[in-house]
Request: fold
Amino acid sequence: MGEAIVITSGKGGVGKTTTTANIGAGLAQAGQRVALIDADIGLRNLDVVMGLENRIVYDLVDVVEGFAKLKHALIKDKRFENLYLLPAAQTRDKTAVSPDQMRDLVGEMKQEFDFVLIDCPAGIEQGFKNAVAGSDKAVVVATPEVSSVRDADRIIGLLEAEEKHHPSLIVNRIRPSMVKKGDMMDIDDMIEILAIDLLGVVPDDEFIVVSTNRGEPAVLNPASRAGEAYRNITRRLMGENVPMMKLDDEGQGFIGRLRKMMGLKG
Amino acid sequence: MEIKGDRRGLRVIAKHFSSNEEFLKELRATLRDKEEFLGTASLLIEVPTDALTPELFERIAGVFEDFPKLSLRGIQQGESQGLLSLAERTPELVAPPKVVRHTIRSGQRLSHPGDLIIVGDVNPGATVTAGGDVMIFGWLRGVVYAGQPDDASRTIYALRFDPSQVRIASVLALGNSEGSGNPEKALIENGELVVKPWHDVRLPEAITQERGSWHERFSSATPS
Reply:
């Protein structure tokens, strides 16, 4: 019996889909059997980030409505045998699925996979309720911005009300140089407000833009700082105790960049 | 008439009397009965909230003159915080104090007709409304309304006071982000809402009764 984890944030554009893709690919690389569910019905993205968009035949709504079998709708990843994606429907909206149907679907998938990762849509309405319904755990993604933290707080409040998701936090897109100058909220400030466990910190990394456009999760690139952070998060999700990455070596100059290119830790 | 002892000392609690005469008579009788037991105690008299007038105040003081060994420490109205000056009159709250032992997060709403004690933070985007006082043993960054709808004698307390908005009765003030980081309280003085240091931070009895669980929740709510 696997574990279902919803990746959520409240606010849009903070990196839920990127995080889902990277954790999924990271877990698959580590040998876990992983399924990703794109719960953002009507605005599907995860297939693009995974580079699988032209393989979609059936989608989540088809499965829920009994139009297709789960095994026919799941798309096998290009890189990993043990990584699958259940895409969202693009032509429907969030009301096409109910929380009960999602609970059944996720329950069925947990039988087959070690991890079921659910990419939650932005907002707190039906799409959120659907995405959360079948999950055992929640990962809340927030960027170091007041608006993002406010929304994350709202989401955590909603999750706590159900008392089952034990939310943990991923701080995304942190820029250590800006934090140092006091121009960006630091992680401690965020933890102080949100008061939940920190699962990981992902530095702002231009490579993410490239990897998203190419459909190649950054976690597979040994030179990417964000990729390294996602690898650490993956290991923590598998129960390993990995210390937080040091973030103060941004702008490390030529040598550092060379080491990074050679895949050595900075 | 009941005599109770706690950290604040001895309190004489008076309830349900039809006239001031009856109350004073009963107070005198109680003190006489318990004179030996009370010794040289200093007493706090607690009267029902609609009863305290300057006249009654003086007459209670007069009763004590007949008991030279006892002293009158103060007169308090009902369960409210601290001593009230004579001019202030507080209608009795309809509900007992409520203790909430978790952080109030963005989008969450909490309201209670009586005093409200929160052991945890009030985060930005959260709204807390009370008929009485609001005490926050944590970091206040949201919106707090005390003394709703029209009780201007109420106070808002917080260990860290950086509200986005506070309101007591109908007086409203917007927060600025320059909190001192020290315990502060907001109250109404001359029709204006003022913020002052909160020196005598004490945990209400409702909290200290379950100190173990309090400490755990509290330290996780504000890790600093």
Summary: The two ends of chain B are 45 Å apart (CA to CA).
